[in-house]
Amino acid sequence: MSYTWKIYMLAIISFLVGTSEFIIAGILDKVALDIGVSVSAAGQLITVFSLAYAFGTPFLMAMTARVERRKLMLYALGVFIIGNAIALALPGFESLIASRIILALSSGVFVVTSLTVASNMAPPEKQGSAIATLVMGFSTALIVGVPLGRVIASVYDWKAIFGGIGLLGLFAMLIVAFVIPRTEGEEPVPLRKQLGLLKERRIALALSVTFFWIAGYSIAYTYISPFLLTVTGMSEKTVSAGLFAFGIASLIGSKLGGFSTDKWGAPRTLIGGMLLHTASLLLLSFAASSPVLVFPLLMLWAFSAWSTGPTQQYHLISLAPKASGIMLSLNSSVLQLAMAAGAGIGGIVVEQTSLTSISWIGAAGVAIAVGTAAASFSLSRSKSSKSGLTLKERKLQKVEA
């Protein structure tokens, strides 16, 4: 089909954009050493990125809603290249912070716009698959991009990674310019309307699940490289292999999470996955000094953590089917805020206690998400039950009439 290969081209570019986001966690210790800051301070580069993405992307998307979509993607990629160039060329922690903000804003605009374009290119019955392909490209950055970046940073300078990403960004612009068709903009959805959904208790509670789940995950993942090097005592090569295994497990978890949601439903899959997530982080804290035990626990952690993603998105859409786009946008912002909070809390933990504490504190965050999810599903069932009674009453009224 003519549209399929175009969507795969967008997925490849999404992989590039995703790598620019995730790569910092894989090379955090090297960045900290080179720019002369502590590991916890370097971890705030993830906080800055996530905050800029969470707050900046909705505003930019609202401002550029009427801009033709292909042109908007080209603008976003142009700014994306500038962000990478700053990381490559300018020294110092402040320059790196500026780079992360620019990369966050450009990545957010590109990802949201490309999802819209991919959905429009595919026929109605294939739109879900088109979006899934794009998300898969973004997620593959964890599997290939992060461990590959770790290897490059070990052999060359870590700044070379951003130089390479920036150079590939130029090729990405050519692909978008010559392959992706024009897609007209749309009427902007006011931010007031988007935030209005948060007034509904069920939706606010469901989005809280995303926050606590990702915050717990981020507390541990942000500092995973220094954790494996100093606490577990892994070598450079073993850390790269561990990050690769982590990415593979996350991909499998994401796939099986979607399958489990279809077969056994969202409540069992979501709560079961997060319970396993909590257990894996707790076990990781006990087995931290044993590379033989840590390696499979890393994979169990990644598998359980990412099995939650598709299930949570399905749950959110089911709460507001007529506003699915807004729900996913809100979820994306909450996710980035949680990443920021997790990186910030993790930095305090590393600074005030030790690296060994990040896994069990992360587990505590995910455990809160389990309780929140149980409350969310209970509230949804209660509301559905009341709606069902109202429907029966209406039918009886019609019969009596």
Automatic annotation (TrEMBL):
Organism field: Paenibacillus sp. SYP-B3998
Membrane topology annotation: Multi-pass membrane protein
Keyword list, A-Z: Cell membrane, Membrane, Transmembrane, Transmembrane helix, Transport
Domain Major facilitator superfamily (MFS) profile, chain residue ranges per copy: 6-383
Record keyword Transmembrane helix present: yes
Protein name: MFS transporter
Cellular component, GO annotation: plasma membrane
Transmembrane segments: 7-28, 40-60, 72-91, 97-118, 130-148, 160-181, 202-224, 239-260, 281-306, 326-350, 357-379
GO MF annotation terms: transmembrane transporter activity
Localisation: Cell membrane
CDD domains per the UniProt record, alphabetical: MFS_NepI_like
Zinc found in the keyword field: no
